[in-house]
User: Which sequence fits this backbone?
């Protein structure tokens, strides 16, 4: 199979027939059954890998938060965008009739093809390899996602973490700098747990500066 895919996908197939199946939409009929089986397997692998990563990355997140984070990464719109990032819209094969009637692949087709690709990589290698590929491919999304409760109430989330991890210690906030004229003053606050500074925040109100410091600390704890 002569496709310039390696640099885009960051993976070299040993058995390129697996890639050919993953990129052959059922409208072609050549590999319709295999493609759908690949899609089924890839969907399960993707969900499992992302779930395991989020479970380990956010040890205090509730089930609802974990579900929301996973959904933001593996939802249809997110997957179709990632498929375009990987140029799957250019690499995938559709039937001449589909191309004539519809032109470009739909978002659902891109999502399905990405899932089929995940299965193809797994079948070409092993579970460890496909998990590494997924974590690398979705690195930006995984690093940017935050637990909903951390965004809604970062001070509460930080206190819950400190009480569980630091034997009941509570976060302590200290104003370390005031700047600007009296009518437009800015405050900088640091938050520490067990004597260690974890985060710093700045805002036009002390309360909001504390929230920003807690959010900064939460992000650093997760990194």
Assistant:
């Amino acid at each position: 199979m002569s496709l310039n895919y390696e640099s885009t996908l960051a993976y070299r197939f040993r058995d390129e027939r697996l890639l050919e199946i993953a990129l052959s939409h059922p409208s072609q009929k050549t590999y319709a059954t295999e493609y759908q089986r690949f899609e089924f397997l890839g969907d399960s692998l993707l969900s499992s890998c992302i779930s395991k990563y989020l479970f380990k990355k956010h040890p205090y997140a509730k089930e609802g938060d974990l579900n929301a984070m996973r959904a933001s990464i593996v939802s249809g719109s997110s997957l179709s965008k990632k498929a375009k990032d990987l140029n799957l819209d250019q690499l995938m094969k559709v039937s001449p009739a589909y191309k004539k009637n519809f032109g470009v692949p739909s978002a659902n087709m891109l999502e399905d093809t990405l899932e089929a690709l995940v299965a193809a990589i797994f079948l070409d290698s092993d579970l460890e390899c496909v998990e590494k590929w997924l974590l690398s491919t979705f690195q930006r999304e995984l690093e940017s996602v935050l637990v909903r409760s951390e965004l809604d109430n970062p001070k509460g989330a930080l206190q819950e973490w400190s009480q569980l991890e630091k034997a009941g210690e509570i976060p302590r906030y200290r104003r370390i700098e005031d700047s600007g004229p009296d009518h437009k003053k800015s405050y900088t606050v640091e938050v520490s747990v067990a004597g260690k500074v974890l985060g710093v925040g700045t805002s036009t109100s002390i309360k909001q500066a504390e929230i920003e410091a807690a959010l900064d600390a939460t992000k650093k704890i997760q990194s």
